[in-house]
Amino acid sequence: MQLLRKIIEYRYFTLSLFIFYIIIQFLVNGRYGWNDGDEGYFLAQSWRIFNGQLPYRDFIIISTPLSGFIHSISLFIVPGNYQVIFERLLFYIFLAASSYFGAAAIDHVFKISKNGLDKYLLATVGFAFTLWNWPPMPWYTVDGVLLSSIGVFFIVRDEKKVFDIIGMLFLFLAALCKQPFYLMPVAGLLFIIIQNKNWKRIFFSAISLIFYLTVFILLLIKFDMLNNFLKYTSGVAQHNSTLWAGFYIYIFTKSMYFIIPLFFWILLKKIFNPL
């Protein structure tokens, strides 16, 4: 009973730490500064969509379109005077959610909780490093990060086709967000192939991905966006730039990103000794 109580107390502590840290960071930093890059660029896209325009057809963008649509939803709900601060709050929520889903996926695959590392603690460290890797202002790459983390969370859960179909949907949606997440659906399919060579699972995942791609192309055709989409989103970057931005920087990172979280893991494990 005493061991069980320690485990429960430890998990409550890490969950509380995760929530408290998010709230404090937003209250301290959320209202400061102005990012004239992403924060204005994508909110301008959302404003155009809110007013009935469509990307590629009515205005030019050189990135994939989903982020503009996602953030146009808040324009229908939140009054204009509060739009900027709400977008900043949404950034913190998206970043926290992606940290949680990523930590939960890691916990499911590697069983880290059995070694004393709670997923909420890992999510807190991930949130902190991600937030302060850049000035704590909205950058809309987090849309793709969130959708990718949800997709990964589903495809590693269990060997069930419905989870794979849902996971591939989120990975495909991530590929439609700003920054090059084009490898995420491919990586998800490769993971399913390598994991256990379940051909039914592979088949349904591949068919679902083809279906999502077909629906996207049909929507572009229906709303007269396909030609401009191909024109504005291709033929600009060199192959080496594409590989660097879409692959290299996500695979190779600084060793300190692993060493510092490992230090806090060992420290808290020594303090709480939950197992």
Distance between the termini: 12 Å
* Total individual domains: 1
Structural class by sheet pairing and helices:
mainly alpha
Number of strands: 0
Q: Give helix and strand order, one letter per element, not per position.
A: HHHHHHHHHHHH
Mean pLDDT: 83
Shape, principal axes of CA atoms: globular
Could you characterize what this model shows?
With 275 residues, this protein is mainly alpha-helical. The protein has one domain (2-272). It is 73% helix and 0% strand. It has helices at 2-29, 38-50, 66-77, 83-110, 119-132, 141-155, 161-175, 183-196, 199-222, 226-232, 239-251, 256-272.
Sequence-ordered SSE layout with sheet pairings:
Layout lengths: L1 H28 L8 H13 L15 H12 L5 H28 L8 H14 L8 H15 L5 H15 L7 H14 L2 H24 L3 H7 L6 H13 L4 H17 L3
